């Protein structure tokens, strides 16, 4: 099974620093194969024959990072087919869209519908989001760094672990999947 692991909050502002070569080694030692890392923010494509359940893989990665590096790093794991579906599902991604406005937040699990409904009732200064399963598609009118649609907001309001990637990164991961995995 082919997966994408998205680590939250590594190599940001000099904190929780993990070199990608060290991360790749950690994955290899734990029996993962075909490991491809992309940029320092913790995007890892890999395959495994043993573990088929994303939750098991998340738990293993988190445990191993804590043991080796000494800090907690949330890991969200999605299957490669889920990545491909996410790109097609984005309601904001159209040919004329400025992709610098688009972001994908991946949630550890699908949130409760009532929590989504409550969050949709709030205004976010012209920024918009749509929740589909465990993916949150974001369109910012300005810079993401100025948006209120953050990991912390989704974690607090939807009660689930979240991590976000800009759409340029999502498209690069798609390209890596097409070039190296498919």
Automatic annotation (TrEMBL):
Pfam families hit by this protein: DUF1697
Domain of life: Bacteria
SUPFAM superfamilies named in the record: SP0830-like
Name this polypeptide is given: DUF1697 domain-containing protein
Protein's organism: Flammeovirga pectinis
């Amino acid at each position: 099974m082919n997966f994408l692991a998205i680590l939250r909050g590594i190599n940001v502002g000099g904190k929780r620093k993990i070199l990608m070569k060290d991360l790749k080694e950690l994955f290899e030692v734990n029996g993962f194969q075909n490991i491809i890392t992309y940029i320092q923010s913790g995007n890892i494509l890999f395959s495994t024959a043993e573990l088929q359940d994303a939750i098991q893989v998340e738990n293993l990665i988190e445990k191993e990072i804590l043991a080796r590096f000494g800090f907690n790093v949330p890991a969200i794991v999605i299957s490669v087919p889920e990545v491909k579906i996410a790109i097609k599902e984005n309601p904001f991604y159209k040919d004329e869209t400025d992709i610098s406005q688009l972001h994908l937040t991946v949630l550890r699990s699908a949130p409760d519908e009532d929590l989504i409904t409550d969050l949709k009732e709030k205004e976010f200064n012209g920024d918009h989001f749509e929740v589909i399963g465990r993916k949150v598609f974001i369109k910012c009118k300005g810079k993401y760094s100025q948006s209120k649609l953050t990991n912390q907001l989704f974690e607090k309001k939807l009660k689930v672990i979240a991590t976000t990637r800009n759409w340029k990164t999502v498209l690069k991961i798609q390209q890596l999947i097409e070039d190296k995995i498919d």
